[in-house]
Amino acid sequence: MLEFLAEAAALAFTPQVMLFALIGLAIGVTVGAIPGLSGDMAIAILLPLVFVMDPVPALGLLVGIYKGSMFGGSIAAITFGVPGTAGAAATVIDGYQAKLNGQPNRALHTALYSSIIADTSSDLVLIFLALPLAAVALMFGPVEFFALYVVSLTLVAALTMGKVARGIAAAALGVLLAMIGRDPITGGLRLTFDIPALSGGIGLIPLLVGVFAVSEIIVQAGRAWMRRAERTVASIAADAEKSGYDVAGDRLDWRTFRSTLRATFVGAGMGTFIGALPGAGSSLAAFMSYGIAQRFSRRPQEFGRGSLEGVAAAEAGNSATSGSTFIPLFAFGIPGSATAALFGAALIMMGITPGPTMINDNMAIIYALFIMLIYANLFNFGISKLLLPLYSRLAMIQPHYVLPVVLGLAILGTYAASNSVKDVWLLLAAGLLGVGLRWFGVPLGPLVLGFIVGPGLEQSLRQALMLGRGDWMHLLQSPLAIGIYLGTLAILVVFGLVTRRRALHAKEA
Amino acid sequence: MKFKHLVLATSVAITGAAGMAAAEFPSEQPIRLVNPYGAGGGVDIAGRILSSVAGEFLDTRVDVISIDGAGGQEAINLVRDAEADGYTLLLTDYGPLVTTALREDVSYDLDEWVPLVQITEVAPVFFARADGPLTDMETFIEIARDDPGGISVGHGRHLSVPHLPLILLEGVAEFETTHLPTTGGAQALSFVLGGQVDAGASVPSTIAGGVGDGSLVALALATADRVEALPDTPTLQELGYDVVLPAWYTIFAHRDVAEERKAVLEERILEALESPSAQALAQRSGTDLVLLGMEDSMEAYQTTIANLEAILADIDED
Prior knowledge:
The structure holds 2 protein chains of 2 kinds.
Chain A: H1 2-12, H2 15-33, H3 39-50, H4 55-80, H5 89-100, H6 104-137, H7 142-158, H8 164-178, E1 181-182, E2 189-190, H9 204-221, H10 224-242, H11 254-276, H12 282-296, H13 308-319, H14 321-324, H15 327-332, H16 338-349, H17 358-361, H18 363-394, H19 399-418, H20 421-439, H21 444-467, H22 479-508
Antiparallel strand pairs in A: 1-2
Helix pairs in contact in A: 1-18, 2-4, 2-18, 3-4, 3-9, 3-16, 3-19, 4-5, 4-6, 4-16, 4-18, 5-6, 5-13, 6-11, 6-13, 6-18, 7-8, 7-21, 7-22, 8-21, 9-19, 9-20, 9-21, 11-12, 11-13, 12-13, 19-20
Chain B: H1 2-24, E1 31-35, H2 42-58, E2 62-66, H3 73-81, E3 88-92, H4 94-103, E4 113-122, E5 125-129, H5 137-146, E6 152-154, H6 163-173, E7 178-180, H7 185-194, E8 199-202, H8 204-212, E9 216-221, E10 247-254, H9 259-274, H10 276-284, E11 289-292, H11 294-317
Parallel strand pairs in B: 1-2, 1-3, 6-7, 6-8
Antiparallel strand pairs in B: 3-10, 4-10, 4-11, 5-8, 5-9
């Protein structure tokens, strides 16, 4: 263990790796701050680059992007009231109010501190839980894996906020798309409609980049009015600034910071827990911890009116998912979120297969990743503290300057990954699919998770049936699997009750 | 006299031209080594070993191009459609090239391909948990004969390199097991270790660690000779079962490429891979270089085709 730590530290603390982590942070904060661009999108586009790089610097780059974008999202949320990323949606509630109240600096600093604290605690949970959980995972055979896959798909769909039916539909569509190509058991072709290009299945890269990035670009390009909307937001912002902004009064002092700590801890705990559940996203974590922090607050009436506690709770809840979201991936090889799925894809491209044996087989690299997760937080803190005054300008970069560049990178990256023009067509088709889904308000996360989880789901089901000689009851003969099903049911019931109560409260208020 | 001069002149001209052609190939134009897998896999790494030492021995660059579209057919078609000038070569194992061709409609005949150099040989190996009842291959076969289908074997993908020897062995030794396709060797290993599956079929690099720490027992190899990574494991041939079906990673040229060019490529590639720098790279990436020239790799290619034809015919009968 100790020699691995030394080896891992030697890998993680090279100037090259640290430089890549810094570059990643810079990219991450930038894409996070620009509404419409996200960290997932940047990671998807950079995937092809990952396999020409050494694993450790590549992971450093990805970790940097992920963490940077997590915080970057709150910049636009606080400065303009536009969430830079989905996770920052809850930050808008109090963050933008605080800004309008003349406290942008306090709100940004609160967001930064609570982000870093929650992120670090979540990383520590990952580090200390992943290894013991991976040991348990060896007890998992096809029957138990099938249960886990069912659970993650159910949770993905059920926890899609307010859109359960659409979430299920999107997940099912993802599974269906993943079935195109070769049957995993017999190797025969299926669902290819005699199109030779489909005989190898749909590639992960064209699908991910297409659905996430290209569709966003198409949507944004079609929204000329959005610029006008943004100008309005900017002029409101300017008005607020003219109305007597007190620079001295807008400094985050220790007492105010301490008053937000309780909310930060609530958010860190809640976010870590929700992040570890396969399928629950960072925006859900942010809203849940916002609600709970309000209940525990001494001044709940200030929530929604620029409460710094509200900012801290939302940001902590959002950022605390960033470590724990990797727990299912590292322990069982099942990605619990779109980001984890992207990291899983990157690991596979580096020749590292996520799953129970991954940590043992790649001890040095995984521990180097753990070390980077922690020091990226420190970097993020240092740089962000220094550059915070400049960051709010990032959010003003007009998307229409950036998007064409992103589209070019997406096409180039996809082509480079497979050397195939067919994948570029697939990319554009996936982009159109993404536009269609957005049009009908279908969430994209469940689709991608369904696509990634689908093959494992099918394979484990058919393996379990083969071992059980075709008897479906074989699926219920493992106490572990039964425990997993019951646990999921309990989580669904609890979440159902909580959401219902919150909805009732909202009505009364 | 005049006639003799003419003959001499002509022969000088001919040898001169031939000499020039030999000197020109390979020229500065890079050689494209196309493989049907994504970057980072075993075949891709084998190609990159050659690529990193090529400059010195082939006088030109070797670009490794990974195209995993259409189950590998896209890569094969690219090489087939390229000009047969020796600058576009195929690096593959038998899966996409031979197995697919025998099972599905493909654009080529198997005898269109001429192996130039075999880079490595991968040994299929059967294994089980050390504390289980399957202590050696004889016991395994005995139990499987007594209870057909009672033993489950995780073997990687359907008709993959470790799966085919299992089918072949069942025919030769007359027993039956439950074949469990897995996503690869890692999953087969974790199911065997976890006790959900009785035995596995994979390659030495997957199980060497488990055999070393005593948690696994390697039952038998489907190769002609024992392998370095598992020195105590017998081959099936030693045990009296004629099952030899190793996988190879081999560089192929299309048969229309001129014979002199094939010869030049064979010689230079072998020289490059025998160099100390290539050996060092191979060791670092865990690739076991088992180099064969044109003649021997052609034999390996044809043996594989014959074996696969037999196995697939057997499956179709079932």
